[in-house]
Design a protein that fits this description.
Elements: H1 2-20, H2 24-31, E1 47-55, E2 58-66, H3 70-90, H4 96-110, E3 123-132, E4 137-143, E5 146-151, E6 154-159, E7 165-166, E8 178-181, E9 187-190, H5 193-196, E10 199-200, E11 205-206, H6 209-218, H7 224-235
């Protein structure tokens, strides 16, 4: 009985979490050709994605992986989503590196991570991208993730900063800004480590970075909806 009550509660919480994720209809209008492969490990998820159209020519996209799986991760995802809405939509901050700096400060304050007695390492790895369609430019900042660019059949990966959005052991540094000039035919892939860290196969090994890049390259000549099937099949 207790297990049933807990599962019912978590399943209902999933409805709430799903409601805060950017809708497919909104992304259809803002992104055009795209796909989302989203598969929570424990009903609710510590991963989330977020899209906001600043103007017809400017779109911001975030992919985040919060500390913990299941319920703890889902709570952190709600905080992350709220901070993106507050900093970007309400306060009008569009500088991707500055947004991550602001998010880190908010999380450290909200979770009392500046208190040495109660210091916790909760936070999130997050990539935030600003797409400038008019000037054909990508601006992004990434905490603990990589950004993958598919160009002419080759997959180029850009490594983000090695520290999270939140408290960590070490000197606090500002997040770095990276920029890419977009070319016709380019595709951009953002992912958490949930894909590369998945164990499977005959030897129970991690999927790994090289397999992910090969999967991206092998999917390069098919439409995005078909690419989603390829990613799903590879994951399974």
């Amino acid at each position: 009985d207790q297990n049933t009550h807990i599962l019912d509660s978590i399943t209902y919480a999933k409805r709430i979490q799903d409601a805060i994720l950017t809708s497919a209809q909104y992304m259809d209008n803002s992104l055009g050709e795209y796909f989302v492969f989203y598969q929570p490990k424990d009903i609710v998820s510590g991963d989330f994605y977020w899209v906001y159209e600043l103007s017809p020519d400017h779109v911001m996209v975030a992919v985040s992986d919060c500390t913990g799986h299941g319920v703890p991760g889902a709570f952190m995802s709600m905080i992350g989503n709220s901070l993106l809405n507050e900093i970007i939509i309400e306060n009008g901050n569009e500088e991707v590196d500055n947004v991550l700096d602001n998010m880190r400060a908010h999380i450290i304050k909200a979770l009392h991570q500046d208190d040495e007695k109660h210091k916790a390492m909760d936070g999130m790895d997050l990539t935030l991208v600003k797409i400038d369609k008019k000037n054909k430019k990508l601006s992004f900042s990434s905490a603990g993730h990589r950004v993958y660019l598919l160009r002419d059949g080759k997959c180029i990966d850009y490594k983000g900063d090695a520290f999270p959005v939140g408290s960590y052991y070490g000197e606090e540094k500002p997040f770095s800004l990276q920029e890419i000039i977009i070319q016709p035919g380019d595709s951009l892939y953002l992912t958490t480590d949930g894909f590369t860290d998945q164990f499977g196969g005959p030897n129970r090994k991690k999927f790994g970075l090289n397999n992910l890049k090969e999967l991206i390259m092998s999917s390069s000549y098919v439409p995005m909806d078909k690419q989603k099937d390829n990613f799903s099949n590879a994951f399974e």
